[in-house]
Amino acid sequence: MHYHQYYPIDVVNGPGTRATLFVSGCEHQCRGCYNQSTWRLDSGHPFDPALADRIIADLNNPRIKRRGLSLSGGDPLHPANLAEVATLVARVRAECPGKDIWCWTGYRLEELSDAQWQLVEQLDVLVDGRFEQALADPALRWRGSHNQRIIQCPRRQACGGSRDQATLTASHKESVSC
Ligand code: SF4
User: Fold this and answer.
1) Max Cα-Cα span within the chain
2) Is the CB of 76 under 6 A from ligand 1?
3) How far is the CA of 128 from the centre of ligand 1 (A)?
4) Which end of the chain is more exposed for a tag (fewer CB within 10 A), N or C?
């Protein structure tokens, strides 16, 4: 996996003070994308164990308290990114208790593959869907266009983590805010 940027302190991408990783690789090609330089999988820099270690250390740094990790891009759920993103997510779960994980993807929840779903089940919040220029609204918080949804992920849902139920929840409520 490659990444474009790592911001150890970020107050824009998700609630509170966070660490944010922008990975490389996106196949959605949304018109009006503000991050086209991230589309190629091999753009940016190689994501290596040292950066993973740094992210874990930043999240656990008591001097600058972060609420959690944000994963954006590019697309963290691009099939080529899944394995390494899943490994990072698993490390945050195991080594950073109490930290939340937000993820932005161009896929809609309903179209996720089984492999993507396995990762999504480990997240706290998924912001889903392509950026649609016709539905863009700069007043929206944490999403660019009205079709995108802020979805509390199954591990936090009262539905108990069922894929079908989570899809149903997202379909019935255009935005599930947190
Ligand atoms: S999903 Fe995001 S990064 Fe990918 S093309 Fe759309 S706006 Fe750009």
Assistant:
1) 43
2) no
3) 11
4) C
